[in-house]
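Appendix C reproduces, verbatim, an entry submitted by the partner laboratory led by Prof. M.T., so that reviewers can inspect both the input and the predicted structure.
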Amino acid sequence: MRGRRPLCYNNGVRRQGRHRIERMTTEQQIIEFVKELCSIVKERAHDPSKTEMGLEFGKKYIRVTISTYGAKSVHCFVNASTGDVLKSASYKAPAKGIRYNLLDEQSRERCFLNADPYGGYLYAR
């Protein structure tokens, strides 16, 4: 008996093996990519067991928060409709200038490759 194949995302269609499960909306895709970004940031933290990532949904942006040793701060903002990743200017507002786009495959791969818990990859270069 063969094991179950992992879920794959291809053009918004979630698949398991050869079977189509459901078609994902753009917002669902963005949320999945944000969760993946959170898991990457958490595993690269100095002490992953003491680091918690959170998502707070607003009208326009998804606020990605990071809590380390009880201190909570905003890691980044993600535009919920376009998938644009923005550096935080304050707790309530993002900085101007798009850093990455989670719907663009090349940009998303660069974001995941460079992601760190300190937000250094979000500075404009």
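Residues 25-117 form one domain. Additional entries are available on request from the coordinating office.
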